[in-house]
Protein 1
Amino acid sequence: MQYIIDSADTKAIKRCVEFFPVAGVTTNPTIISREHSSDFKGLISEIRSIIGPDRMLHIQTTSDIAEDIVAEAVELKKIAGGDFYIKVPVSAEGLKAIQVLKGMGIKVTATAIFTQQQAMLAALAGADYVAPYINRLDNIVSDGVHVVEEIVQLFQKHDIPTKVLAASFKNVEQVHKVAMVGCPAVTINPELFDQLIYHPLTLYAVDAFTADWEMVYGDKKVIDLLK
Ligand code: G3P
């Protein structure tokens, strides 16, 4: 399973890469705009230099005409370097662009997916990943996890190599449930990485271990007793 950082905040990305087993970074126009950067190219390059060439970097087009999407992808790939994916929202123009991009050898994540059939057509067009939006589905009294489950099943049944990259999470339960239905990748905000490992009983257990140890060995650490 792949855990990806859904952010363009370079400080937060640096911290996540240092502490968590992350497979890459995804952005979208909203996420980029939150940084208020006057140097978009510089921001992309900085993210790449933090994550290195081997982790994935997914950056979204802002065009809605196939030819323009392709042109943006070509330029973004030059700046992003490394393992680059262009994110393309599903639409008729988007599907046309995905097919052209695949012919050019540029990797694609089809995004803004809300239905199983959007995912299927994006996959058949050649998308490497499809990104369904879990929390936004839950917010309209739909069931994001169920949509992911059925996309995973569709790809398995029809022998489609496209991977599901679930996006738009607000809590640990949503992440866990998509993992349980076989979703191979999730993109989550930096705060959610910390929530995934938080449990008060873990903190309590560690405090108790420390107290018991210090009663006998004081401030000596394990390494001090091995010398
Ligand atoms: O990239 C898609 C994802 O980030 C959307 O998340 O939280 O805006 O629904 P959210």
Protein 2
Amino acid sequence: MSATYPIVRGLPTLDRCRVMGVVNVTPDSFSDGGAFADADSAVKHGLQLWAEGADLIDVGGESTRPGATRVAPAEEQARVEPVVAALAAAGAMVSIDTMHASTARVALRAGASVVNDVSGGLVDPDLPRVVADAGVPYVVMHWRGHSDHMQERASYTDVVAEVRAALSARLDALVAAGLAAEQIVLDPGIGFAKDAEHNWALLAHLDALLDLGRPLLVGVSRKSFLGALLADDAEPRAVVDRDDATAALSALVAAGGAWCVRVHEVRASADAVRVAARLRTERSS
Ligand code: PMM
């Protein structure tokens, strides 16, 4: 018997954690900023991640890095539309990373199959309506404010209980607004209005979030708390040298029941989630 996951409407069932590969079509994302800022290189990179075993390609046109410049939806759409269209036409399953209803609409028309909203519907109240009408999966992340101010809001008495309560409230509000619970994937928002201690506490207690009954997406890839953990002579580990630690966490959170990991380097995490699935199957047999 293999371990099971809650159903997400519109996606094939898998008996393992999924891998979402990241394509940031931005000049300023913290982890790969500028590397894929033009459509051709972004498409090429997305196809490479797909070939390496990604189950979804997450295309974003606005950086959420702490202190990042906000991008107008028209500019965001100009960045992502050709990339989403080309990846979907090539047969990749694409998710659109946006907080804006108009960008989600453009991306869904271009062939995206999933909407990933780091604000969980809090920035643009029209976005949940677009998702409800399209009937596609909706990734709802824990969010406390835009990246220019979010770290001022990294204050919790009990981070696990507070993130759980906030995600539970978003789930209820979105279902009340017309989404089906089966469309919703929850995400603790690692690094968003959270310091390293908060991130580790959440990762250590994913079971408290899984208890909400919806699948969990976890995004730790190359984030600062890994740079701090692996620091040498007080210098954080370089961003591009955080992929081994990211893959290690992919294995651990997948073994703990996460439904999807969002990563920049796909190959190692694709192996890691298979190792985790085999362990989960053994545990549940
Ligand atoms: N992290 C980033 C961007 N989008 N989406 C979800 N659902 N979860 C995350 O943790 C998340 C996200 C920031 O990372 P990047 O700038 O490297 O893409």
Protein 3
Amino acid sequence: MIGKASQTRDGIRLYQDADFEGMRKAGAVTARILDEIAEHVFPGQTTAEIDRIITAKVTEYGTTSATIGYKGYEHASCISVNHVVCHGIPGDKKLKDGDILNIDVTVILDGWFGDSSRMYVAGKLSRKSERLIQVTHDALMKGIEAVKPGNTFGDIGHAIQTYAESHRMSIVRDFCGHGLGQVFHAPPNVLHYGRPGTGPTLEEGMFFTIEPMVNLGRPETKVLADDWTAVTRDKSLSAQFEHSIGVTGSGYDIFTLSPTGKFHPTYA
Ligand code: MF3
Ligand code: CO
Ligand code: CO
């Protein structure tokens, strides 16, 4: 078995201590790009231009994009505006004052994947959008705080779901987080809802994302004719935050933390 990576019964790979460093380096580049893109978000800007800037930075920082060429996707980012839940395709439509957007970037560095997303605003943030964004961010952090060996994936989902629903918001069921590491998407599916004690047990060396999508209205989504863009069926606003994390002996490591503390809020 020499050289064979270990994995759990559920097919979840367990990485070694040295692998954490590879993930930290990849995650740091993703975080830097998400930090630096903030100043390029303003009314009148197009999401295609934001993506063009991200594409240039991916190369400048010695990484490659995990999304360009992934299942036919052609961009270095997904940019999801207002009622777009996820997988928004960058385009020529101009951002309007008060638009909220999720920017999701995944880079590959030395074979390691760094996947993260945050919320941004063009111009002035409304009170209602601010509330949605705050609750979504805090829901992610509640989920992350449930990460330690011995807890289960159901504990993570439960922490996220109960927090969002206690604020009368809803959790999207149609998309989930995922294992990652030396691949983009691997087992397990990381659900953002669930019951305590259910699902696989967390073990040291698991790497995965947590990336809850929270809607102000109902949780149902639909995918548009472009086969990517997922929107809320009721057209209500949606927000999302994503970190790539690893399970340590006593808790977690967040690989995609902002070096400048700008994960949230990204705006002043
Ligand atoms: N980064 C997304 C995630 O969090 C995946 C985007 S796949 C793409 O898993 F092809 F739409 F870019
Ligand atoms: Co992801
Ligand atoms: Co992502």
Protein 4
Amino acid sequence: MLVLTIESSCDETAAAVVKDGRRVLSNIVSSQIDIHSRFGGVVPELASRCHVESITLVIDQALEKAGLTINDIEGIGMTRGPGLIGALLVGLSAGKAIALAKKLPFVGLHHMEGHILAALLEHEIVFPFLALAVSGGHTHLYRVDGIGQYRTLARTRDDAAGEAFDKVAKLLGLGYPGGARIDELSAGGNPEAINFPRPMLHKGLDFSFSGIKTAVRNFVVSQPVKNEQQLQDLAASFQTAVIDVLVAKTFRAAKEHQLERIVVCGGVACNRGLRHRMQATAEQSSCLVYFPSPALCADNAAMLGVAADHYLENGAIGDLGMNAVANWPLDQAGQ
Ligand code: KG4
Ligand code: ZN
């Protein structure tokens, strides 16, 4: 089945064409980062307006890159939530409009379901598996028993990991979003230079990252950064504290729930330090770790192709009255 997928939950307008839920024929992402970065974060109203301006062009580009026209498309999948409501509505409405005009079936999908199943575009992974979903809005551990079968095992009690990266980057004057910049700086820094806290490291599976962020703020106030090496040491020490917690809890969850396969996904899964540590820890255990490639970790539409194909093949048909959902637990997302 040839499926067109559309994603507009935050600050990326994206469309893709995916064949049979596995082969990515095109994956176009138009980022709004330049527009939001001067405000130090995503401005929801601006995001919605930018999506409106780009959506048709991005869909056209996805079709063109795939060497297809809209008449070749057999179904549509779009992100229904969670995310910014105005932003979500743009992609959802675009998908519904095309579906109505071309008499195509469509399905509204959960953004995190897309992130998790992106791993299946590049790897054969047997269910069940554990998913660590780390993005700007999520730091969750899910048990995945199949497509549409998700159970939340842990979540962050406060900031998401990506949010912590972005807030620390902002207070260090590194711009927005700063996760990738901290990752780069960490490569040249000493991860043991500063001993930042590892909140809730030995307590349950839930996460908490706001304490690390506050510790970095307090450190910078008492000892202002004077040179590039100190900045790199600070970035590396912060990043290592976050990674220590993510890795320890993920492997503990895998052990407690007897899961031997782990998928790490979402924007923070681009982090080179996290990828390296997850892989190294897996090698010392009986677990296999899978990461989508970086382009499929950050927000994109191809990641929706796996679930869209599955639900459409199984007869799911969205109704035109379907609304976007700003807050939507993944456990309730199966079709
Ligand atoms: O999944 P995503 O693209 O959007 C959301 O659904 O939130 O994730 C964006 C988050 C941002 O917080 C960004 O700073 C972070 O992912 N991120 C990174 C890296 N690349 C992106 N964090 C750490 N290291 C990176 N290399
Ligand atoms: Zn995302």
